[in-house]
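Entry 14. Ran structure prediction on the chain below.
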Amino acid sequence: MKFAEMEYKHPDKDEVLQAIAEIEARLNNAKDYDEFYKAFVDYEELSAHYATQENIASIRHTVDTRDEFYTQEDDYFNEINPLIGNAQNNIIRTIFASPFVEQLKKDVPETFFLTNEFALKVVSPEIIEDLQEENKYASDYQKLVASAQIDFDGQTYTLAGLEDKMNDKDREVRKRAHKAYWGWFADHEKEIGEIYDKLVKIRTRMAKKKGYENYIPFGYIRMLRLDYDKDDVEVYRRNVLKDVVPVCMDLYAKQAKRHGYEGNTLPAWDEKVEFESGNPRPKYHDEELVNRALNMYKELSPQTGEFFQAMVDDELMDLNAKPGKAAGGYCTSLSDYKRPFIFANSNGTSHDVETLTHEAGHAFQYWSSKDIFPVELAWPTMESAEIDSMSMEFFTWPWMKNIFEEDTDKYYFSHLSGSVKFLPYGVLVDHFQHEVYEHPDWTPDERMACWRRLEKQYLPQKDYDEIDFLERGGWWMRQLHIFLHPFYYIDYTLAQVAALQFWARMQKEDPTAFEDYKKLCAAGGTLPFRGLIQLANLKVPFEEGCLGETMGEVQKWFDAHDASNY
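Output, structure tokens:
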């Protein structure tokens, strides 16, 4: 069934709550395990159907935020989800208190119980209004960013659409494009700062109601961090400063030299341009890019070929940037149909290819684990999910020659360079949020100053001479996750370290690398982060020596590939 043919039916809040209450009564009154288990299965089916309707509405809303019907539906879900979540938590409490729970533990993976123990700590009646308010302000940010219309060289661009000009081969074009892009954020600085201030205060209020000193421990619980904590993350941050930042600064120094600068700092408009001759660009776009991706996935393995053919046949991808489309890229699932969906904002750059392969990694993981029960364990927790997506970017390297042609070597260099350079940025986003939630009473200006201070530690290459907004610490305002998904960013870096380990195994032509990847995908959320890492025969990024060893392999590759040749 094509996505456009999937029926959306507005879920009536009272009907959903009534259905959940009836299942709760059945669980409470079950006379034997068979009755109990049948009620549990029915609850899972009900939850999957509700999530499917929510995701259909969300996809159609983000594809065109100007569509009034789906905007209203999105607002509706933001309003009722805390109520539904509270009712679902009552089900989980009933399951946990049942005399049949020990028998259920024999039939259901342990992560179901671990994640739901955390979930019980997140949603409760006293914070429902706070959750509704949080959803509202997060949506306000998303709508504001999606509404951006920027005049540039006689045309009007969205923020995503302007990014192609920001990476233009002509330095003057990209310089003006950067000033236009960041000019929009400067014009909306007060509004964005106020939205975030409200979000910080709402989240802090929720955490205090739940008995926490600040939002940080509560945020970790919301992120379902089952087997690592703030202390692990602090150790990891220090290792990024020790083992990764020096590799990045060496790369930036060579990049600055290619651009004709002395030292190792770069203006904002040159930082994303690896080569004076311009960044690698895909030779194919839109339908032809998808056709080549289809051939690639068919050649990679029978499983990936079957998966991507279904994505094409069922029109489960919306890839091109257009007016009214929400920013970013994502993959979600439609549980009733056991199908994933990919959303992106292609703009003609190499990022289009990285986004397609990245989101296809998420989608293939869901495809591989879609039959897992309970249905919520088809997806792993967030940091584990990103291993699947980031690793797929590397497993598709051998086919990039069919997309980039003479720019293939350039692509390899810029992709690996970008993956490594991303690590300090991702850790910065996380460190910034720890500081913000430790100091919830900071003013917007104090948050800006904090970002710039940390930025100088993790990203010392940045030169913002001609963009005052960035010099004052405004870059973070473009980072959607900070607003919508607090603390969901270190996950990308942990996953990147795991993906780089897969990349290193590929360089050694390890025949077990892709087999381990498929095992990882098929496991879904049946194991926590450390368990999945071990299943895939990788090293845990927090462990002393993991980053140093991985960066050693990366440095060897860069030493053998001189970017000045491109």
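The first strand starts at residue 150 and ends at 152. Will compare against last week's run tomorrow.
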